[in-house]
Amino acid sequence: MEIEALEAILMDDFKEIDPSESGVSTTNRCFQITLSPQEDDLDASNYTPVQLALIFSHTEKYPDEPPLLNVKSIRGIKTDDLNMLQEKLGREQIIIPHGEPVTTETFLAWRERFEAELALERAKLMPESALTAPKDKRLTGRQWFESGRAAAVIFCFVPHHIVISLGFALCFSTCSTIILYF
């Protein structure tokens, strides 16, 4: 199924090759992906100065074991560069994600800080007289909204993300949107 997906995506740049041509010590099926630099104008008639073949074959224990890999110069790649690519091909890569992982504890700490910031913003938007006025003289929510001083805060809940926007609407078909006026 993976091979069919690669054929559909890569089309002419993907083909099955004979294991004896692969440079990989296996009798299993071998495949070649042709890699070429992509030009800005995407004109296929242009001459490509370099091309590389990435050759792979699945082992008997695939997917528990990585595939066998090899690189071959089709056109214009020096032997030194090819050897360097071959060395890097077998090396494991450690990818360090940037940012802080979201856990329950970090989310709760963030939410506490966010709610404190939101309360400060609300206090800044309200006139001083509204904060100190007796309860019977305070504006109702409707009066506050109709006075034009209200700012809309939109919370958009997407799994693992919270998008917040001040003063304009967000439209996502995959989330539920709550609009609060204050």
TrEMBL record:
Pfam family, one: RWD
Protein name listed in UniProt: RWD domain-containing protein
Coiled-coil portions: none
InterPro entries for the chain: GIR2-like, RWD_dom, UBQ-conjugating_enzyme/RWD
Alphabetized CDD domains for the sequence: RWD_GCN2
Sequence ranges assigned to domain RWD in this UniProt record: 1-117
